[in-house]
């Protein structure tokens, strides 16, 4: 019974652990989805506001239109710089410092945008005309700083791309040169002993073939000319005696040997 109780307790503990892990995973997933939705909603809201500011800068004449144009230029400079820095950050970690500076610029830009928004609602045109030059100067300073960061980041990424391209081109040229440099395979060296034996055998065969006709025709061309009797083996017996023997009849008869 005690063993059964231990097993039941372990199973219950395992089930509770799985339940807790499932709850934690669901909470994390919900937070990630909520953060993604908030980010997309913020981007969508900012895009809508930028479109509205662009429309105001075109449609509204006078000070109101100029204020809308200042707000739009401020947002456009910061957004463009942020996109460039965030896109190059995975390849170049040094852009993180520039992104940190841009975050500080965002804080000043948010304060300036709030002041411009309040000035946009100001009913007194004289106050608007008095405050607008100062706010325009601040906008230009912030946009110039943001533009400087963006241009420097773009030049840095372009320089790195050019250096990488030059290095890659050099490696390709080296590899092409290595591919064009080939050496034909050397033939296998023959065994000196085998070559000597083969040459000796060839020389012996040639010598035998030369000596054989020399022995066969020995005496034919040396000293004096050879007669027909010597060639037929009849030199030892005169021709007349041979003719007499051939004419002598055979006593056993023509049919007996």
UniProtKB/TrEMBL annotation:
Residues 187-225, 238-257 are annotated as: Disordered. This is Secreted protein.
């Amino acid at each position: 019974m005690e063993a059964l109780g231990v097993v039941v307790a372990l199973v219950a503990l395992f089930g509770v652990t799985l339940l807790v892990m499932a709850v934690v995973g669901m909470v994390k997933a919900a937070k990630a989805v909520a953060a993604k939705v908030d980010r997309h909603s913020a981007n969508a809201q900012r895009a809508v506001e930028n479109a509205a500011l662009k429309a105001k800068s075109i449609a509204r004449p006078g000070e109101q239109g100029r204020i809308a144009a200042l707000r739009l230029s401020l947002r456009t400079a910061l957004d463009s710089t942020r996109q460039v820095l965030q896109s190059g950050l995975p390849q170049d970690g040094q852009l993180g410092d520039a992104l940190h500076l841009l975050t500080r610029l965002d804080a000043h830009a948010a304060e300036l945008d709030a002041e411009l928004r309040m000035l946009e609602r100001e009913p007194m045109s004289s106050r608007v005309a008095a405050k607008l030059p100062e706010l325009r100067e601040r906008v230009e300073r912030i946009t110039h700083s943001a533009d400087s960061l963006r241009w420097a980041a773009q030049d840095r990424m372009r320089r790195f791309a050019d250096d990488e391209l030059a290095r890659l081109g050099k490696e390709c040229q080296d590899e092409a040169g290595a591919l064009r440099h080939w050496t034909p395979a050397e033939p296998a060296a023959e065994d000196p002993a085998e070559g000597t034996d083969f040459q000796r055998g060839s020389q012996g065969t040639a010598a035998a073939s030369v000596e054989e006709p020399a022995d066969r025709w020995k005496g034919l061309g040396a000293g004096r000319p050879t007669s027909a009797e010597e060639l037929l083996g009849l030199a030892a017996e005169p021709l007349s005696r041979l003719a007499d023997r051939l004419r002598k009849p055979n006593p056993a008869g023509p049919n007996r040997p």
